[in-house]
């Protein structure tokens, strides 16, 4: 089963870059940012040229992550990880986290996650309302957006899978990654950037090495260990987040 999961992850990774490029090209051609445009881009992705330096690392990374998740008993998290990778790559190319992916991901967490439907839906609603309120307050005070609606929905979906405390821990790690990315890139923090890759990288690090992610989170938002902790990655616990998260972020940002 881990081998099959790794193969599936690698196959998805091969297509993600081409899907993101096809979607961004359609948006640049004034296509509406709808589910139809997203899925039309997915249908067009296999015909796009293969770019080894960009598509190869993502295929290898997703294959490795999917194999580790499956080997550690987290097979149900493999589709979650693949969708997060798709969201990250699409956001990096287009600046959007499509509702066609974030909302089904949220519903899947309610139905398939470990919390139960009622608790999961309540967690998503709590995180969505809190972050949307903070984003609205920032917009009112500063006159510009600081946190996109797609980011709010993605974190609300993660709250549906793992709970609000975990979602806040993932947000904290994503902010750390985002700050590092801002300082390292041309233009610094004044130029807007896609936050979806940072969320996906932080969530991936937390799923693969939860103890390492906890060490990097402050006490008041430290996420609990997920229900399917991963023995194969346990030896990475002290360094899990600093190794896994930047690696995933750099692979996603290689498409920029």
Number of strands: 0
Give the distance, in angstroms, between the N- and C-terminal Cα atoms. 33 Å
| Helix content percent band | over 70%
Question: How would you characterize the largest beta sheet?
Answer: none
Rg, rounded, reads 17 Å
Structural class, by secondary structure, is: mainly alpha
The percent range for strand residues is: under 5%
Mean pLDDT: 76
Number of helices: 11
Order of helices and strands: HHHHHHHHHHH
Stretches with pLDDT under 50, minimum 5 residues: 222-256
The gross shape turns out to be globular
Question: Can you walk me through this structure?
Answer:
The structure is a single chain. The protein has 256 residues and is mainly alpha-helical. It contains 11 helices and no strands. The longest helix has 27 residues, at 2-28. The two termini are 33 Å apart. The relative contact order is 0.13.
Describe the secondary-structure layout.
Layout: H1 2-28, H2 35-44, H3 52-71, H4 77-94, H5 99-112, H6 117-142, H7 149-162, H8 164-184, H9 196-208, H10 210-216, H11 240-253
Helix pairs in contact: 1-2, 1-3, 1-4, 3-4, 4-9, 5-6, 5-7, 6-7, 7-8, 8-9, 9-10, 9-11
């Amino acid at each position: 089963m881990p081998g099959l999961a790794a193969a599936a992850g690698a196959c998805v990774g091969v297509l993600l870059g081409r899907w993101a490029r096809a979607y961004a090209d359609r948006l640049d051609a004034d296509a509406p940012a709808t589910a139809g445009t997203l899925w039309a881009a997915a249908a067009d992705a296999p015909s796009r040229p293969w770019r080894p330096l960009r598509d190869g690392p993502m295929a290898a990374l997703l294959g490795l992550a999917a194999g580790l998740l499956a080997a550690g008993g987290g097979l149900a998290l493999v589709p979650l990880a693949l969708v997060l990778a798709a969201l990250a790559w699409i956001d990096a190319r287009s600046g959007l986290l499509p509702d066609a992916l974030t909302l089904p991901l949220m519903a899947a967490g309610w139905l398939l996650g470990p919390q139960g439907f009622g608790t999961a839906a309540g967690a998503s609603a709590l995180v969505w309302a809190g972050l949307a309120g903070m984003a609205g307050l920032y917009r009112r005070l500063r006159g510009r957006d600081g946190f996109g609606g797609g980011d709010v929905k993605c974190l609300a979906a993660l709250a549906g899978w793992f709970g609000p405390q975990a979602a806040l821990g993932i947000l904290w790690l994503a902010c750390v990654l985002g700050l590092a990315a801002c300082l390292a890139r041309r233009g610094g923090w004044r130029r807007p950037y896609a936050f979806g890759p940072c969320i996906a990288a932080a969530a991936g690090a937390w799923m693969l090495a939860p103890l390492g992610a906890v060490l990097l989170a402050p006490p008041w938002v430290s996420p609990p260990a997920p229900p399917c902790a991963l023995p194969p990655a346990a030896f990475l616990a002290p360094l899990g987040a600093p190794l896994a998260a930047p690696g995933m972020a750099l692979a996603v940002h290689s498409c920029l």
